[in-house]
């Protein structure tokens, strides 16, 4: 028998300033939810033209960027460059070190570029791996309709209704499902046993859980599930005016210490000091940072 996952907590992601002129709603990586292994941070970002994340380093984690509207350019010191557009994802493994810039596209109507960025910890033995990128285009993502077409699921990573995703996008096993539920719709979504899981509300409101444990969640709420159980239940009441959209994300728990200093995520203070030293001296993975400036980041230099 499958057991429903209970809800541990529900909380609102508060908007804050980040980067150069960007606005983010951060839910993971705040006092409300820290070190929810393997997840380090979740930002729901809104970047208007003229704002962005100019040249900056990373070490020891992976970032997953899911663009909801607009476009974002990236460029790094290894000569990688590209653009993701609405519905696309980019998986970046920082590994032993990368320096890059992420800048919003200048939309003709001046609209913001909106998306999610999730930071995922790397297993200790992979923190010194070579950096890499993988793009996943919207058209490559399998989709499925369930509950008489009242529920639509994009299977970015993982499995829903017997449909498997594209494999091997991140080193740390993570499931990502983008779920839309119309009024009167419901889903019972299995998740791997023992993994940490949460749902982040993009639009509308939904009910999570079953029976007396059912909990309401509004837009910008993060719903954190207990690790026990293997199915997440979500529904939108038939009387609701609007449907709901959320991402359901689960990840394999890493049994390791997390010491984070800004963009460096390692397993000890000594390794963090080493990362700062390596970055400043352009060594041990940061050699190519010496004198490098991104082309896309120059738009920020006044």
From TrEMBL:
The lineage of its organism: Eukaryota, Fungi, Dikarya, Ascomycota, Pezizomycotina. Pfam families: Pirin, Pirin_C. It comes from the Eukaryota. GO terms for molecular function: metal ion binding. The keyword Transmembrane does not apply. Residues 177-284 form the Pirin C-terminal domain. Residues 22-120 form the Pirin N-terminal domain. It comes from Pseudomassariella vexata. Binds 1 Fe cation per subunit. This is RmlC-like cupin domain-containing protein. Keywords: Iron, Metal-binding. SUPFAM superfamilies: RmlC-like cupins. Signal peptide: none annotated. Fe cation binds at residues 56, 58, 100, 102. Its cofactor is Fe cation. Belongs to the pirin family. Transmembrane segments: none annotated. PANTHER family: PIRIN, PIRIN-RELATED.
